[in-house]
Amino acid sequence: MSQQSSTTPSSTAPAITLNNGVTMPALGLGVFQSAPQETAAAVETALATGYRHVDTAAGYGNERQVGEGVRRSGLDRGDVFVETKVWVSDYGYEQTLHAFTKSAAKLGVEQIDLLILHQPMPQHFERTVQAYRALQRLLADGAVRAIGVSNFLPHHLSALLEQADVVPAVNQVELHPRFTQPEVQAANAAHGILTQAWSPIGGITFYPGWGEDRASALEDPTIAAVAAAHGRSPAQVMLRWHLQQGRSAIPKSTKAHRIAENFAVFDFTLTDAEVARLDALDTGRRGGPDPDEVDPSTWHLTVPEA
Fold first, then answer.
1. Which of 45, 58, 217, 255 could lock onto 303 through a cystine, CB 3.0 to 4.6 A?
2. Domain presence at residue 303
3. Catalytic residue among 60, 93, 132, 207
């Protein structure tokens, strides 16, 4: 085992084949809570480092800067997998079709690789269903390559699938060693849906209105011990934990050295016992809002026109 921390990235991230045959890099750059003025540079840095997948959302307010970073990279559009999310203020069939138009214009692309619904919003689920039907239309028309959901619990998935024609390719949920959501992972797997982890290193302990009095997984002694055994950082160990179990992960950073560190996770392997040690850290406590208890339409967040 290596005894020196590595921040030298591998050239490419492994690809995951989604349930519709589209391939997606397993590891991507997340830009949740990345200030717009920092986002373009972070994306450009990530793509220079070797990332080929960027995750954003209409509700983050930085889609335009993600697109700018992709263009500044000099890479061909087809070499970068761009993922974004429809916010709940744009749920509804026609509204979601227009949400695609807004996001594509801000990103500066004609086709979005993965478009997902940001919240299940069970308090107004018919609007969610109509939004998903719009995603199905966009998929059929070739405007998007894959569609999915975010923060869906198993009963949300079941309710959606009763009325959907296309199984989501991805369900992006909060997932890290302190909150592993085994029931969600099992439901996703049963339907052939890829589990994608937001807050994959458990660092989001400052989610607005939630996550108070939460300890960061980055400071967990068990993770630190595993990291020391490999000469790696706790973040690298957690990202490797996701990848070895077949998940996608989208760690966020705007710092060049952290972006590089988070990508340098393809040249070491955790033992089965180490994976089990991380699995056992689950507390069942989420850092973000419970999608069953919170109505995101009450946040009064609207997405401006392009």
1. 58
2. no
3. 60
